[in-house]
Design goal:
CC_3452-like, DUF8200, Secreted protein, alpha+beta, signal
């Protein structure tokens, strides 16, 4: 293979591998995230399980921690109101757990 052909082939291989390498990082959120059912009148912060949550509009976020998602979700609901979505590094709560969270 000529040097220019080798360079082109290597570039194609690298380009093909980059999206696969980036996919796992994009799949898991870096922390907690909740979508509130009703938007807040003004941005707020609150402490849930010793972690500061930042909320604005219908979005709330907090750094990751080791607690169970359903447990944290219930505390977020008590502090900020019902949620329509809740995610952690473990993934998104399903419909049944989300109903229990809001319950």
């Amino acid at each position: 293979m000529r040097p220019s052909s080798l360079t082109a082939a290597l570039a194609l291989v690298v380009a093909a591998l980059l999206p696969a390498a980036a996919a796992p990082a994009a799949a898991a959120p870096a922390g907690w995230s909740a979508t509130l059912r009703e938007p807040l009148a003004a941005p707020r912060q609150g402490i849930v399980n010793s972690v500061v949550w930042h909320c604005g509009g219908t979005q709330c976020t907090a750094p990751a921690q080791g607690s169970r998602p359903l447990f944290v979700c219930r505390k977020v609901v008590a502090k900020f109101g019902p949620v329509t979505r809740f995610t952690s590094a473990e993934g998104e709560l399903g419909a049944e757990d989300l109903a229990r969270c809001n319950g």
